[in-house]
Amino acid sequence: MAYFEHEGCTLHYEEYGHGAPLLLVHGLGSSTLDWEQQIPQLAAHYRVIVPDVRGHGRSDKPRERYSIAGFSADLVALIEHLNLGPAHLVGLSMGGMIGFQLAVDQPALLKSLCIVNSAPQVKLRSADDYWQWFKRWSLMHVLSLGTIGKALGAKLFPKPDQAGLRQKMAERWAKNDKRAYLASFNAIVGWGVEERLSRVTCPTLVISADRDYTPVALKAAYVKLLPDARLVVIDDSRHATPLDQPHRFNQTLLEFLTTVDTTIQDH
Fold first, then answer.
1. I need a surface site. Which of 2, 37, 140, 193 has the fewest CB within 10 A?
2. 83: left (phi over 0), alpha (psi -120 to 50) or beta
3. How far, rounded to the nearest angstrom, does the alpha carbon of residue 240 sit from its chain's CA centroid?
4. Which tens digit of pLDDT belongs to each residue from 203-246?
5. What is the dihedral of CA 88, 91, 58, 105, to 10 degrees?
6. Which residues in 71-97 are b (16+ Cβ under 10 Å) and which e?
7. Which domains, ranges and CATH numbers included, belong to the chain?
8. In this structure, what are the phi and psi dihedrals at residue 230, rounded to the nearest 5 degrees?
9. Which helix (H) or strand (E) holds 164?
10. How many CA atoms does the CB half-sphere of 39 hold within 13 Å?
11. Which UniProt keywords apply (predicted)?
12. Residue 15 in 3-state DSSP?
């Protein structure tokens, strides 16, 4: 367990293993625990660094407006604090948005980028977009985080044999700081860097669950805007792919990272 300071905020991160640096960035309302099924396998090959995003986990939860650019700046500060040089970055959901932001702002800091069940923008365009957002926003204000966690668990892990994952989800969600959770949700809505994707120069892997919230077609469309990217679809998976299909996910990610590292060595 380690901490560092950035802009008056104490941020928590964990480190495992040795080798080329690999950052794992969790999603909204989550923490380093998003990656419990990845860390042991990845740490056998890489120096794995797992931060808690500002407002999440063991990091401080300052009473302020959050932004994806701010979360990204915290990551840049961590990279500098640990003197990592170019690193591999894997981001799930909101973590993928933070990865996109860092990749367009500071492309030289990334060796590769892996985006999991995420997108380079969350823009409200249609009346239905606004209605869906308002519905979620209202429920988040009214319901307890424990109730939201239970509902999310049932949606993400619907199978009978996933009871353990449902239970974990409900318990973990209940531990969130509600104000920080809402501030992070507000940071996502209206954010976007899609028009700057040509700046992402590193090799990029986009992983999509076949049953993610957003359709595979959406990921296929933005993959075309990235200079060096490919899409892999993982079957029988929902939004939390690293947890519901860990074996397939780890295999796909490790193959990608190995290819990137081999190509770098060859040059």
1. 2
2. left
3. 10
4. 999 999 999 999 999 999 999 999 999 999 999 999 999 999 99
5. 70
6. bbbbbebbbeebebebbbbbbbbbbbb
7. 2-122+192-266 (3.40.50.1820)
8. -140, 160
9. helix 163-174
10. 16
11. Hydrolase
12. strand
Question: By CB neighbour count within 10 A (0-12 exposed, 13-18 middle, 19+ buried), where does 30 fall?
Answer: buried
In the structure encoding, which two tokens stand for residue 24, read together? 């794992």
Give the whole-angstrom CA distance, residue 210 versus residue 208. 6
Nearest to 41 by CA among 190, 252, 216: 252
CA distance 3 to 209: 33
Residue 51: name the closest of 94, 7, 14, 100 by CA.
Answer: 14
Structure tokens at 231: 């899409």
Cα–Cα separations (whole angstroms), residue 139 to 110, 132, 143, 148, 200: 37, 11, 6, 8, 36
The residue with tokens 């209605």 is 131
Place of tokens 């367009």: 104
Residue with tokens 């964990």: 14
Which whole-number Å values give the CA distances from 45 to 96, 111, 117, 156, in the listed order? 22, 15, 24, 29
Report pTM: 0.96
Question: pLDDT tens for residues 160-199?
Answer: 999 999 999 999 999 999 999 999 999 999 999 999 999 9
Q: Are 58 and 52 in contact (CB under 8 A)?
A: yes
Q: At what angle do helices 145-156 and 163-174 cross, to 10 degrees?
A: 150
> With contact defined as beta carbons under 8 Å apart, do 12 and 55 qualify?
no
The C-alpha torsion from 98 through 199 and 123 to 233, rounded to 10°, is -70
Check residue 87 and give left, alpha or beta (phi > 0: left; psi -120 to 50: alpha). beta
